[in-house]
Amino acid sequence: MQLSVQGYLQQRKRLNPEIFPYLNRKYLMDFYRSDEPRLWKGYLLIAIDGSKAEVPNSKDNRESFGNSGNQHSGKGQVRALVSGMYDVLNHFYLDIEIEHICISENELAKRNLKQLKKFGIRKPVVAVFDRGYPSLEFIDFLETEGIHYLIRLSSNDYMAERKRMQSADEKVILKHSSARLQKIRKKHPERYEQMQKKGSTLVRISKSTLPSGNELALMTDLPDTITAEELADLYYQRWEIEKKYNTLKNKMKFESVTGKATVYVHQDFWAQVLVYNMVQDIRNSADEEAAAAGRENRNKYPMHTNENVAIGLFKETMLKILLEPEEKKRIKKLGELQEEMERYVLPIRELPGKERRKNISNKYKNNQKSSF
Description:
This protein is α+β, with helices and mostly antiparallel strands. Helices cover 44% and strands 19% of the residues.
């Protein structure tokens, strides 16, 4: 039976993209209901971050996702806002939300976090956020959901309260002033009465100085038994979600959508996340073996498998495994795939942090001049 490209795409329109998040939950559910997940001081550590993603330039997508441009770019380029929820220590994407570029990242983060209940997670959860999330209404949402949080504050967030702090790490009362309540009433009327009755929110703010001289201010509800240094280290662990989004985008071609209709965007984005989790599941087991072999060989650095090679091996092998009718042969081929990944290992080096360089270059170089 032959099928044209047009016929294939027409059939794909009948595929509900919600099947992919459903399969992702089913794939990970047993893992999170067991005692296998790695924890940080008894907490499941997740990071949430939003990013713009390129989607095909079509009328359908422009209406669904909007465009990102300026006064010089006319209509602008079509972009979707993607908010990802990532398990930092176990290396799985738990959820992504794909929406119009004008939607608030806080609202997408709420949708991410509401998906946690579907996994049946039994351990307490701490969510780490970068700047842009610390609204009173969002903190109230986290408290209502029973989710612990660590949020980096921008230089102008809650400045009045921060100036009144007597030490670098203490409990701070954020009053629900009329100005703050008016913003909540305008954007989140469903929470206005609750926030008005509550009157204030108690948080812990920890301040430290970065090597660049700038202030690192973190807001959390974690107890005082966790030191300020541990909070700073916890915040830096969120960098994992940045690295893994880079993996999705540049190594797995996350933005390379195979059709112009909006349904293809949702299908392809979620399919790539599901495939990433399958690769990482096998790679987690391979990493454990590689780390054990590294310790046995007394290597200077801990070892892990090469991510680029692991993705390539998975791409070449997984379809053959899925098409294999005999279960014993499938299990054997899966074991061989893991063993092949273990052959390609790299050291994990803890490189010293460096201040980001901001070069302001002139129009002309002083070591090059055109001749006339």
